[in-house]
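Work Package 3 (structural annotation) set out to generate three-dimensional models for the target panel prioritized at the project kickoff. During this period the team completed the workflow that converts sequence records into discrete structure tokens, so that structures can be stored uniformly alongside our sequence database. As a representative example, we reproduce one entry of 321 residues exactly as it appears in the project archive.
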Amino acid sequence: MPPSAPRRPTPASPDPAPSRDADPARTEGVDDTRVPAEPAEPAEPAEKPRSSRAGRNLPVAIGVGLAMGGVVLVALLTVRWAWIGVLAVCAVIGTWELFGALHRAAGIRLSRVPVLVGGQAMIWLAWPFGTEGILGGLMVTVLGCFLWRMRLGAGGFVRDVGASMLVLCWIPLCMAFGTMLVVPADGAQRVLTFLIVVICSDTGGYALGALFGKHPMAPKVSPKKSWEGFAGSLLFGSAGACLSIALLLGDRWWYGLIVGPLLVGTAVTGDLVESLIKRDLGIKDMGSVLPGHGGLMERLDSLVTSAPVAWLLLLVLVPVP
């Protein structure tokens, strides 16, 4: 058998021509042929609007407050009975805000229709019938709340009815005494005195609290309230009461040293009560109807608790003409 022919060595295949893709720098995902771009400078943030210590838009809050004050002044200085309409509208909005907050945060089923209708009845019946009209409207509304809630059964009955009574007594019942303020012949001046004292209390408390507040007044309820702010409320509120009673009601100026501190106490109490309710519910505001303020209850909290005391104090100290 003849020997097999020797195999020819297979020529090695030539290496492919180097290409751009064979660049080891490129295989590692790095392109060293380009100059790295400079990072773009971050855009300058737009200037934030001035805000208060409470996180509010201060210019908007001031504008809304002035607009509300203008509406009240026009009502009192033209047809003073229009003040009752202002109260009625505010009562509906404030009641609805509190209803919504209680239902969203705690699932409370409130007697909305009886409280809304009965609240309006108390405010308007106080005009011709005085305290008897307020008491009659209150009793009928309480019974209506019981009957309205019965249809849903026993589960949560005490909680729901109790919350309805809270809303009824806190907002429309207290605001009905605002109606009583405007009934006398000098009713416009009485309402203005009441508003001036409470507004001075809020303003003085905010100003001195922001400038000098260091000692918390009620840290578990409202950490931003300080004793320095409370002193400012007493100072400004008492000054406003003295000037209002002397200039608007034409009576002894020193009555303001009685009216001022007492209304400051009720105004601060109303503010703390609302703060405590919001803290319990875990919410920041009752609503959002007023730009820069939140809900209307953020502005009514100190007024509603002061209205009954203002009516009683002025009735006793300043004779009704």
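The radius of gyration is 34 Å.
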